[in-house]
Amino acid sequence: MKLLVKAPAKINLSLDVLNKRPDGYHEVEMIMTTIDLADRIELILEEKDIIKINSLNRFVPDDQRNLAYQAANLLKKKFDVKKGVTIKIEKNIPVAAGLAGGSSDAAAVLRGLNKLWDLRLTLDELAEIGAEIGSDVSFCVYGGTALATGRGEIIKQIPAPPICWVVLAKPFIGVSTADIYKKLDVSQINHPDTEQMIDCIRTGDYDEMCRNVGNVLEDVTLNLYPEVAQIKDQMKKFGADAVLMSGSGPTVFGLIEHDSRMNRVYNGLRGFCDQVFAVRMMGNRHTLD
Ligand SMILES: C[C@](O)(CO)[C@H](O)COP(=O)(O)OP(=O)(O)OC[C@H]1O[C@@H](n2ccc(N)nc2=O)[C@H](O)[C@@H]1O
Ligand SMILES: Nc1ncnc2c1ncn2[C@@H]1O[C@H](COP(=O)(O)OP(=O)(O)OP(=O)(O)O)[C@@H](O)[C@H]1O
């Protein structure tokens, strides 16, 4: 038996850090949304008690370090599953890019194995299990658009943002999320207005949404990697309506309303940057059918 599951990337339309917690994590307030740039995960049921990872991408580990492996292993241990799985990952999301590629693979494996191993868990239960793997996994279990708080694992769904293009550009560097959080000075933060951002999304006010994007990790990454600042400048120059780094970076995204402008930004960036994509936001959350 085989199952194909889509694992979409996310962007952070807004990312605020409230404080550093005693456990070392940061208390965050983030508006996240899934985009139509996705890994494809094939799950093949194995009668033997094994978990095998199969990926052709040289930056993706094929052992216990893979978040998809960890997702399968966690379900296996928690529910004493005797069967196994081969997980084939077609990697389309850039790795270590601020787009939650690994987290989304893990979330897709949770949703898929729930079906393949007939576990009958709800999305809420899967999201709770996902939080044990990483802070972004719970959001990726649901997909759609949400306010994420706590260390990122407390998810409240909000409506889909107004329709627009998302052009993504990633320079040829990978960024360590832990490093960026470590270098953030929480006493020097210029906080974005998360409430205001939620309001703009609820009312479908595109211009106001563009004015309210913000990411407090951006300055940290920009200081370490000047090429990220250059990409931001290029995107603005080519006419994106809003430009922001996603997550801990280094991917930069631009929001663009009109097709002709999207083409200009996309083509302009392609001459300048390693990986460039033009996609839509996905809007809908995942279901368990
Ligand atoms: C930057 C974002 O991607 C934005 O969506 C997330 O906040 C990070 O999510 P993630 O990659 O799933 O993060 P995790 O794998 O849980 O944590 C990686 C490392 O990032 C730091 N970390 C992560 C989340 C958080 N709220 N505070 C932190 O300080 C911790 O040092 C942690 O060891
Ligand atoms: N399935 C996976 N896909 C990609 N990377 C993985 C996977 N599993 C483990 N990794 C490891 O995780 C690291 C971070 O990869 P990932 O693409 O998830 O980063 P990210 O997009 O910056 O994540 P986030 O936005 O959640 O911080 C990689 O360097 C890789 O070694």
Automatic annotation (TrEMBL):
The active site is at K10, D136. This is 4-diphosphocytidyl-2-C-methyl-D-erythritol kinase. Catalyzes the phosphorylation of the position 2 hydroxy group of 4-diphosphocytidyl-2C-methyl-D-erythritol. One of its GO terms (molecular function) is ATP binding. NCBIfam families: ispE, PRK14608.1. The gene is ispE. Pathway: Isoprenoid biosynthesis; isopentenyl diphosphate biosynthesis via DXP pathway; isopentenyl diphosphate from 1-deoxy-D-xylulose 5-phosphate: step 3/6. It comes from the Bacteria. The lineage of its organism: Bacteria, Bacillati, Bacillota, Bacilli, Bacillales. It comes from Niallia taxi.
